[in-house]
Each structure stands twice: as C-alpha cells, then as structure tokens.
Amino acid sequence: MTSDQFPRVDLKRFGEVLQQTSNRIQLKVKRDQVISVCKQLLDELPVNDIDIQEVPIEDVIRQIFTR
Hints:
This protein has one domain (11-65). It contains 2 helices and 2 strands. The protein has helices spanning 34-44, 57-65, and strands spanning 16-20, 25-28.
C-alpha cells in the first residue's frame, strides 16, 4: 500500500503515534483501551496485521527511577 492509497485519518484519536510509514503505523495505546482501539482500527482502516506488545517491565522501572 502506498501513501496515496492510505486513507487520510487523524491517527491521534487512536493513541500516540510513535511511527508512521506508507504501510505501517505504530501506536502507543493505554492498556485499558487496547481492545476498543483495535476494533476501531479494524472497522475503519485497511488493516493487514496487528501486533500488540506490552512495554517491557525494565522500561517501566527505568521511567519510575528517572523522575
């Protein structure tokens, strides 16, 4: 899918946009919103694949101690 084929959508309404290319979007979504956001994405966009990943616990601990 090229960028001109990708529908123009305000992706910020789904979550924080971490990365976007012509055929890939990486979003950061609150844990309690993952299911509803996935449903919206599948209903509204031409999704070929979804990969849901948890933030590694090491990153969470690092964020806590760097405050």
